[in-house]
Amino acid sequence: MSERRFRFGYVLASKKVSSFIQDSLINHAQEKGIDLIPIDLKKPLIEQGPFDCIFHKLYGQEWRKQLEEFAIQNPTTIIVDPFDAIEKLHNRISMLEVVNEMKITGDNETIGIPIQIFVEDNSESLFDAITRQGLHFPVIAKNLIANGTADSHQMYLVLKPEGLEGLKKPVVLQEFVNHGGVIFKVYVAGDHVKCVKRRSLPDIPDEKLETLESLISFSQISNLTDKIDHSFDELIEKAEMPPLSFVNEVANQLRDALKLHLFNFDMIRDNKVGNRYLVIDINYFPGYAKLPNYESMMTAFFLDIAREKQDNESRLASE
Q: Are the beta carbons of 57 and 19 closer than 8 angstroms?
C-alpha cells in the first residue's frame, strides 16, 4: 500500500473502548498507516472527519440518523457495519435463520442449529410448546432480545418440566445438546478468521437428570459443573479443533449472508454425531481483545478496508 495514511473513526461504548482500543492496537495500526480516531458524540458527525472508515457499536436513533446522513455526503467512506444487518443479531430467532440456508461443501462435517422455539405471552403453555416441537429436556431458556443488556444475558438451563414454572414469557427455548463441555468461539473480522476453544456447559447424562435441580441459572452453572464433572480443563485441552477449512467456510458463508464484517459465532460439536456442528449464538463486534495477538488480526482487517476505500475512490473518479 502507498505511503498514504488512513483515518478510521470509531464510536464505541466506554467499556468497549477500554477493552478494544488498547495502546498496542493503536500503535500496531499506526505502523501500517492506519490512524484510529475517536468520534466526539458531543459534536455533529458531519462536522468531523474526513474518515476513510467508521466502525461502531452504538445504537439509538440519533446516532443512526447522523451516520446515515454522513454516509450520504461521504459515499466512499466505508461504514462497518450497516444498522439493519447488525439488528438481525439482536433477535435470537432471526440471528440463526441464515445457518439453515448454508450449503457446506466438505465431505464430512455438517452445520446446523439446535431445535428452538419462541413462545409468546398469548400462546400455549411452555410444556405444550415443547411437546409439540419434539423438544426433550434439558432445554436452554433465553430472552428473545440479544442486545448486550443484562436482561439479554440472563439464561437458564431447564432440566425438568417443573423448571418451566420459573420462566417468564415471551421466551426462546433451545434444545440442549451434549457437546463435551467445550464450545468453539469463531471470531471473524472480514476475511480473517480465528477459532478458539472455551469452557462450556458440561454434558448432562440421563442418569444425572433426576438428581439435579429443575431450573438452574447460567450464573450458577459452576455449581452444576462441580456436581457432574471435575475434569473440565483436561476436557478442553484434549478436545479436537474442527477442521480449519470447515471453520473458514462456515465463517465466510455467514459473513456473506449476514452482510457483516465484525462478529463471532459460538459453535458446538454434537457428542452423538461427531461431525455434526451446531451454531448456537452469533454476536456483533465481540471481545476481540481476548484473542492472543488480536492486534495483528484487526490491523490486517483495517488494511483490507483501506484497500477497499482506495478502490471506491478509483471507481468514482473513473465514472
A: no
Q: What is the pLDDT of residue 227?
A: 54
Parallel, antiparallel, or unpaired for β 110-112 and 276-284?
A: parallel
CA 57/CA 59 separation, integer angstroms: 7
Q: Can you tell me the distance from the alpha carbon of 232 to that of 224, in angstroms, rounded to the nearest whole number? A: 12
What backbone torsions phi and psi does residue 225 show, to the nearest 5 degrees?
Answer: -60, -45
The predicted structure's pLDDT at residue 147 = 80
Residue 227 and residue 55: Cα distance in Å, rounded? 44
H helices, E strands: number in the chain: 12, 14
Which residue is associated with the grid cell 471507481? 315
Q: How many Cβ atoms sit within 10 Å of the Cβ of residue 317?
A: 8
pLDDT at 221 (0 to 100) = 54
- Residue spans of the chain under pLDDT 70: 1-2, 123, 150, 219-233
Amino acid code (one letter) for 312: N
15-22 contacts at long range (C-beta below 8 A, 24 or more positions apart)? 16/57, 16/285, 19/287, 19/289, 20/287, 20/288, 20/289, 22/289, 22/295
> Can you give the pTM of this predicted structure?
0.93
Q: Is 123 left (phi over 0), alpha (psi -120 to 50) or beta?
A: beta
**Cα 218 to Cα 73, 134, 140, 266, 318, distances in angstroms:** 46, 24, 10, 16, 56
pLDDT at 123: 67
> CB of 35 within 8 A of CB of 6?
yes
Query: How far is residue 173 from each of residues 114, 116, 119, 124, measured CA to CA in Å?
Result: 10, 5, 8, 13
Strand partners, 36: 8
